[in-house]
Design a protein that fits this description.
It is built from eleven helices and eight strands. With 294 residues, the chain is α+β, with helices and mostly antiparallel strands.
């Protein structure tokens, strides 16, 4: 039998207050930023002192600079390096409160997930949070807790390790010494937003879209505007199954297109959309400015 807990508005406010008061001082508070600026040497000159110290910390954790460099680019795209949380206060982001309360009160987590199922038809919903905009379950795999995920240093460690794992997930299907490919104006071409490493491109886009789209081979179809998964059942693929189920592509399984990246759209927090190609372009654009991380 499930236990029913009734909360008044006052009870809920007191819980939120307690959750926020339980947070410990982290490396991204103004006091500690000033302390680090005055006492620690800045190793990475292409970064601000704050980011330099965070990068140095991540590398001290045994993470290779390559992953740190591109993970920092991801933090830029995900939260403008944490600035996007400024209007809420770094330690009062709603997502943090929801996740923290879900740990304090398991019934609260059930209530939130029930509501999201009813309103948005989302199963087992957990909000992404912090500078890395990462869900707590992923962060915990890399020993980064909720409070650390609210800091640049903690988020950078988690994002770097996660990016490396995503790279391992997709490297079977992409080449590291060639750019990814896209279809543009009915032509197959090198992706102008590529890092030059198709596997890295797939890993970066997996961070935003999930890796399932990039753990498969793509083949030519009877339509020059589309590629399709080579393992499509009966050699047919319906790219718009819900909106246009009559649109069916014939897949040529003998024509494998190595390093092809499908174009996907992801809804953002402001009810707009960004394509995975646009996401990659922003991350690579940021990361290219961090040449001193090596």
């Amino acid at each position: 039998m499930k236990k029913v807990i009734k909360l008044t508005e006052s009870d809920l406010m007191n819980i939120v207050k307690r959750v926020l008061e339980e947070q410990v001082m982290n490396l991204d508070t103004p006091h500690n930023k000033e302390f680090m600026r005055k006492t620690l040497p800045q190793k990475y000159k292409c970064l601000t002192p704050e980011f330099s110290h965070s990068v140095e910390y991540a590398i001290s954790e045994g993470i290779e600079p390559f992953w740190v460099k591109y993970a920092l680019g991801i933090l830029g795209r995900e939260s403008d390096f944490g600035k996007i949380m400024g209007k809420f206060g770094l330690k009062a982001a709603p997502e943090y409160v929801i996740n923290k309360m879900s740990k304090v009160i398991p019934e609260f987590k059930e209530m939130i997930q029930w509501g999201m199922k009813k309103l948005k038809n989302k199963e087992n919903w957990v909000p992404s949070m912090g500078v890395a905009q990462m869900t707590p379950d992923i962060a915990e795999k890399y020993n980064v807790n909720l409070e650390e995920l609210m800091t640049i240093s903690g988020s950078l460690v988690a994002a770097s390790k996660y990016l490396k794992d995503l790279y391992s997930d997709t490297e079977k299907y992409y080449n590291s010494n060639q750019p990814s490919k896209i279809i543009y104006n009915k032509q197959l071409m090198d992706n102008p937003s590529s890092s030059g490493n198709a596997t890295l491109d797939a890993a970066i886009m997996s961070y935003n879209s999930g890796s399932s789209y990039f753990k498969k081979q793509y083949c030519k179809t009877n339509n020059v505007e589309y590629m399709a998964p080579c393992n499509s059942p009966n050699g047919q693929y319906q790219p718009f199954l819900k909106d246009n189920p009559k649109f069916i592509l014939k897949v040529d399984k003998t024509q494998v297109i190595k390093n092809y990246i499908p174009t996907l759209k992801t809804k953002t927090g402001d009810n707009k959309y960004i394509s995975n190609i646009g996401y990659l372009k922003e991350v690579v654009g940021y990361s290219n400015k961090f040449g001193c991380i090596k």
